[in-house]
Amino acid sequence: MNLKVKLSGHYYQFKSVKEVLAKANEQKSGDQLAGIGAANAQERIAAKVVLSQLTLSDLYNHPAVDYDQDEVTRIIIDDLDTRVYSQIAAWTVTQLREWLLAPDTTNEMIHQISRGLTSEMIAAVCKLMTNLDLITAAAKIINEKTANTTIGRPGTFSSRLQPNHPTDNLSGIMASTMEGLSMGIGDAVIGLNPVSDTVSSVTNILNAFDRFVTRWQVPTQTCVLAHVTTQMAAIEKGAPSGLIFQSIAGSQKANTAFGIDAHLIDSANKLGQQALKNSGPNVMYFETGQGSELSANANFDADQVTMEARCYGFARHYDPFIVNTVVGFIGPEYLYDAKQVTRAGLEDHFMGKLSGLAMGCDVCYTNHMQADQNDIENLALLLANAGCTYIMGVPQADDVMLNYQSTGYQETAAIRQLLNKRPIAEFDQWLEKMGISMNGRLTDRAGDATLFLERELIK
Amino acid sequence: MIITNKHLTELVPPMIHKLPVDQTGAIIDITAENLQDKLLVTNPRNRSAYFGLKQTTPARLGMGRVGTRYRTASVLRLRADHAAAQDSVWQEVPETFVRSMNMLPLQSSCRDESDYLTRPDHGRKLTPAAVATVKSQLPTHPTVLIAVGDGLSSRAITANVAQVIPAIKRGLAHEAISVGKIPFIKYCRVGIEDQLGDLTHADVVCLLIGERPGLVTPKSMSAYVAYRPTVGMPEARRTVISNIHPGGIHANDAGADIATLIVEMLTHQASGLALKQQLVVK
């Protein structure tokens, strides 16, 4: 293992694989805040050169957090297919990059290699990829997952309907839901971030969703994104949920800050198999995002891309229905501006896809970040070209509960039309039946929430 | 000028009214419009019911579409609201305001706004010069120290502080507690009140600070109040009164609430979670 390199006449001697991984990252304010980023542009490239020559076994042997110390590491290592890994252990990261980009490397072949890759290997190859590399490689990978409907099929582009409300008002939540559905939004999931994390409130919202979805026979899944323990308590008492949600992180210590561990998620997954309104087999929904480990002081001097890759290594253990990064929510101390958010969105999506997940993205920003709606539209379109499974649908992109901006209903509609993509097939057929779309195009009726009031008024 | 003989399609503009002008001849302020009174959906099935739906949520519903995209009016309004939020982050509290409030100007270790946004640790620490100023100009062992910090919104400070501080003072005067000189900290994070606690040995420190602006308002301020705060203490020792802005908790009411809270902290010699538990026990 060689950690020394000469670049443009200067020698660079790195001390560890961890240091190489951190300094090989594209510039991120979070890595600078952690004090682990490259000191300048040349040191960054020197680290990339060293990384390009490391073997996959070098990365296997140097996880970001020790095996004995961390259950996330143990899950990633123990889940590895050793027959696959032994074939590729001697590959350099360069070889992995070029193998992924080679035209004769198919989706099936990538699925096979994925079982032999640890999260550190996935992070490493990500760091050698340019933005267009990340798009090209991710676009090859098809990850289909099935709940009531199957997400991730080629030619589809899905959306989560996010009808958040500042006081969890049921009428207000349903108003946003109706307008979203009338725009063809919600085929991934109708999922609300609640203000109140209580069993009764979560149950009320799940009941409201269930009544609506049953009455209008909407082929999708529903979810209230409370803490996993709150959802489990509600579901055990019979609340009708379609998925079980939880935010996850890339180290055991950071997961502790979220109030979870592997055992708890395992219990949630088991409960989900039995007690959800979901024909399965995929029942979990996870969210991630670069920087959450550092903010919990649980990054173990590893960079935020590597820690993010480990989230996906942890997630895939539970074979979730959907996973998305909430890429721009964390703030400028981790991702400073639109350039860094764009890079992070493409990295996360690629790493999630290579980990075997039906990967989506909450393409978003906060008001103290150097980004605006144009940047978010750009990233959404880049991701859609990379085969991103779904994005969010928030009324005109303005989340009035979480106080940040994401993608609006119109973004999914525009991207589907531009790239000739369709919603999930059953949902697409439902939209046609409702007269909202025809042959994949929105009709004049689309975008009118009162479409769903008609029957109620006639009654 | 070219005049073509080719057959021309008739160019029909979409039916969109121009924005009205006010009495000065200026185009009206689009941010002053209540979005809940605005419906841009073309030919909705049930117009009055749509307004009913909009009353149930501040979400931007019924903003219509042109093809798959937004209407011009709704794009401009979103951008205007975002611009107000952005500018509130990047604009500084004017020195004239700090002077007019007779506050003592200090600065955290942040070099500039960009350093402030990326280095929360710098924003929690005063410069050595500021430490010297605190030591020489603020009294030690006061009952209460009120401090103001710009935080993530300058407009939160200029919109609320001039009313909140007199209201706090009025509330404390009932208990014969006086308030001394008030420092203003530029590039301020919440944790700086812990350092102020260590430097002054105040019984209670109350920091008024601008919150991260949302699109609904860029003027939201919070009060972070702690009993004998000290560097390194757990976050659970802070009590927060948030959402102080003209559309939320009004400055006068917030001031009275803060004064009551300070008195409770002095009575129970506790703040944050510990105070909450003591009040529940009672």
Automatic annotation (TrEMBL), chain A:
Pathway membership, UniProt: Amine and polyamine degradation; ethanolamine degradation
Keywords from the named record: Bacterial microcompartment, Cobalamin, Cobalt, Lyase
Chief location of this protein within or outside the cell: other
GO cellular component term, pick one: ethanolamine degradation polyhedral organelle
Cofactor: adenosylcob(III)alamin
Co-factor binding details: Binds between the large and small subunits.
EC number: 4.3.1.7
Pfam families: EutB
Binding site for adenosylcob(III)alamin: 194, 246, 295, 401
A single GO BP: amino acid metabolic process
Positions annotated to bind substrate: 160-162, 193, 287, 362
GO-annotated molecular function: cobalamin binding; ethanolamine ammonia-lyase activity
Record field: catalytic activity: ethanolamine = acetaldehyde + NH4(+)
Domain of life: Bacteria
Subcellular location: Bacterial microcompartment
Subunit relationships: The basic unit is a heterodimer which dimerizes to form tetramers. The heterotetramers trimerize; 6 large subunits form a core ring with 6 small subunits projecting outwards.
Family to which this protein belongs: Belongs to the EutB family.
Function: Catalyzes the deamination of various vicinal amino-alcohols to oxo compounds. Allows this organism to utilize ethanolamine as the sole source of nitrogen and carbon in the presence of vitamin B12.
Protein name per Swiss-Prot or TrEMBL: Ethanolamine ammonia-lyase large subunit
Gene designation: eutB
UniProtKB/TrEMBL annotation, chain B:
Free-text comment on the cofactor: Binds between the large and small subunits.
Matches recorded under InterPro entries: EutC, EutC_C, EutC_N
Keywords assigned by UniProt, alphabetized: Bacterial microcompartment, Cobalamin, Cobalt, Lyase
Signal sequence bounds: none
Any single Gene Ontology cellular-component annotation: ethanolamine degradation polyhedral organelle
Entry keyword annotation includes Lyase: yes
EC number: 4.3.1.7
Domain of life: Bacteria
Xref: Gene3D superfamilies: Ethanolamine ammonia-lyase light chain (EutC), Ethanolamine ammonia-lyase light chain (EutC), N-terminal domain
GO biological process: amino acid metabolic process; ethanolamine catabolic process
The keyword Lyase belongs to this UniProt entry's keyword annotation: yes
PANTHER family to which the protein is assigned, alphabetical: ETHANOLAMINE AMMONIA-LYASE LIGHT CHAIN, ETHANOLAMINE AMMONIA-LYASE SMALL SUBUNIT
NCBIfam families in the cross-refs: PRK05465.1
Subunit: The basic unit is a heterodimer which dimerizes to form tetramers. The heterotetramers trimerize; 6 large subunits form a core ring with 6 small subunits projecting outwards.
Protein name: Ethanolamine ammonia-lyase small subunit
Species: Lentilactobacillus parafarraginis DSM 18390 = JCM 14109
